[in-house]
Each structure stands twice: as C-alpha cells, then as structure tokens.
Amino acid sequence: MDKTVRTRFAPSPTGFMHIGNLRTGLYAYLFARHNGGKFILRIEDTDRERMVEGAVDMVYRTLATAGIDYDEGPDRDGGCGPYIQSLRMGIYREYAEKLVELGGAYYCFCSKERLESLHGENGTHTYDKHCRNLSADEVKARLDAGEPYVIRQKVPEGVVSSYTDMVFGEISVSSEDIEDGVLLKSDGMPTYNFANVVDDHLMGITHVIRGTEYLSSTPKYNLIYDAFGWERPRYMHLPPIMKDASRKLSKRFGDANFEDFLAKGYLPQAIVNYIALLGWCPKSNMEKMTMDEMIEQFDVDGLSISSSIFDETKMRWLNGEYLRAMSEEEFYRVSAPYIAKSKVGGKYDDRIIAQLMQTRVDILSEIPDKIDFLAEFGEYDLNMYVHQKMKVDLNVAKQAVKVSIEAVEAVDEWNETAIKEAVVAAAERAGMKSGQVMFSMRVALTGQPVTPGGAIEMAAVLGKEESLRRLRFSEGLLEKAE
After folding, report:
1. Neighbours of 140 (CB within 10 A)
2. Which residues contact 298 (CB under 8 A, 6 or more apart)?
3. Is 251 among the residues known to form the active site?
4. What does pTM read for this prediction?
5. Which of 98, 185, 248, 251 is catalytic?
C-alpha cells in the first residue's frame, strides 16, 4: 500500500458494546496492525437524545479489556483531534458552508410543516429540491433576516456514483435514487453522514470498515468527497451477525453484549477470538488464536459476503479450550472470584478446588453450581451406591466405606497421591477391588450421584478431618439400612 493505513472505530455512546460493533472495531484494528498502520478511536456523540450515561467509559473499558489498543483517541492526541464529535461543531459548520461555496450543498429554508407534506413512494418524505436553485441574493436576504435553515447536499443530476468495495466488489447507485439529504441541521448539529465524511478526511482515514447497512449509502458519501475535491477512502463492508436464520443480533432486543458475556464467566480473549471468526476465516483454518496470531493472519480475502450466526455453544467450547490451556496459576487467578462466590468459598483449599475445576468447566460461572454441594452434607438416597456393572450393592458399599475410613485414617501427608496409595492398599488388604472402594467412597463423601471429580479428588478438597466425618456419617446411614 502506497501510504500508511489509518482505520478508525467510531462508536456512539448510546448503550453497551454490542457484539457486532465490537467486531467492526476488531476488524479495523486487525487490518491496521496487519498493514503496519494506525488505529484511531473516535466518539460519535452527536445523537444527544440517545446518549447513555457511562457509555463513553464503557467504550474505553471494553477496548482495554478486549486488548484492542488505539494509537489516537480522545485521551491520545495524534494531531487530528478533537476525537469527540461534540467538540467539533465549529469544524462541521465551517465545512458545510465551504461545501455551499463549492456548489456541493445549499441552504434550505423549508419549514417542518412543508417537509411533512411531501410524500414520496411508500409514504416516505422525499425532499423535492424546493430550495436548490434559490438565487444568491434571496439566500443572503433570508439568512440576514434570521430565518432558520438547514444545509443540504446538492446531489449532481444524471450521474452514477460507483465504488469498489473490498468485500462486495463494484457498487453503483444512480443520483436519481439519492436524496438531497441534510448535512447540517437547524441547531447546527451535523448529520451522521456529513460528520463522518469530514472527520474521516481530516483524520486521514484510508480505509472505512463498517456494516453492510451503509453499503448502498456510501455512493452518497462519495459525492461529498468529490464535491470537496478530496480523495475517497477505501471501503470494507461487513455482513451482519445473526441471532438465527432470520433475525440479526441487536442490542435493541436485549441480545447479549460484551460485558454480559464477561459476567457469565467468559474470558475476554476467548470472546474476541470467537467474534473474529464471525465472518472471517484465516487461511490456516485455525480457530484458537492469540491477538498476535489474528493480526498476522488477518486478510480481506478471508472475509465472507454472507452473514454469520452467533453460536454461543461454539463460543463456550472455545472458552473451555482457553481455560484448559492456562497454567494452574493463571486458572486459579481467574477462577478465584467464582470460588469465593460459591457456598464453599474459604471453607476448603481454593487452589485444590481450582485444580479440580480447570478441566471440568467451559465458562467460569459454572464453578459455583459444580461445587456448592461440598458445603452441605446430610442424609441422601442410599440407592446411589447400587452399581450393577461394578457389582456394588449396599453390603459391598458398607464394607467399602469401612475400608475407606481405614485408609484415610492412615494418611499422614494429605495429597491426592498419598490418599490414592492408601485406598488402593486398604482395598487390597480387604480383598476388594479398588474401583468398588473408590466408587462407594465418592458417594459416601458427597451424597451426590454426579460430582466433578472422583473419590480421591473429593477427599483432597474436603481435607482429612471433614472426609473422616462424612465417611463415618455415611457408615452410620448404611448400618441403619440393614
């Protein structure tokens, strides 16, 4: 590429970070980094009515958590600021008035009532270009008289505006299908269309990456570039992320956002990795990738023109892969808050619980449900001891629990290796199969039909004193059953 690539992410602070918005920012970041370019953050806050308190901080927080680092932004001046649109009002007015001088825009004095009386096809209000050809003298007189006005784009007549999208190829729209839209509103606020063009030009954006909802309106933006005599950027439009075959993911309908998934126990790097694969396939066909690997492999050729369906089951699987690939210390660090939230938090050795959980959960929020049973122990259904394949009935179970008590009492150094050796040795002395003893021991320790670990692991978590207490309690239950 001839010049430094500059991409931007321009979220509106109107709510939480939707998955589709985050993917747009991620792709802009990956493209810039892959090509040795710059990634810019711009806050588009001109829609004051829809702004949500705290949403700007959420943008910063999300990018930091996701590992998406920007070179320029509201808090990192790169010489193209301000990077917040509400601080650029004077710039938009200046360029709107300049565009009028260049013949690419005009003042429109039509009242709200007149505009509402215009009906186009399908009941839409299509502007009829009423003020397009007012004389300079009439415009001046009306401005001097203080009449309210907007500035509209003067779309050239009889032309076809075309461009080549990097994903979808050639896109063409006839000027007959482009309305003379408002660029600067009567309150001096720019419309989204105009502010984006001005900002992208002044900030040197070389590649604009956004959703396909802008695919057909981009020719209108290009006419503004042309009227100013500015170089157009290149465009990369991304298909939507779907909830299912017919519905798009949408924050409007309460679909999960980035921070929702964090709260559910997903790792940020797993979320980002999965989002990257919604519409892009690396040539290597890798699925689990670090950010550096995604940067290295990101290629426009791998982008799909088809929409992607968000599959949380697939993301859970990928998150599980990340958890299992962690070191024990890393997993303990991320799992500790979830262990603390459980009913057993602080009662047993949290590090042993973490070791037990690492290969048994796909998302961290599963941990409390899988270990809460350790906090409560009382009478339970003795039929859990019956296992035909292992040839265990209540009599065998009673003997196995006695063997377990003998084994546990003999353990001095409390760890899984020592516990297992003691149980195997005690079973051998009693002429029992170690599998029968361990199966019965697990039930006796937990009173549960299913546990996240076997007898040895459960004993290691509970500790010697609590293990003996539970085994003796279970021995009593079995004796009562005679």
Report:
1. 12
2. 27, 30, 31, 33, 34, 280, 282
3. yes
4. 0.91
5. 251
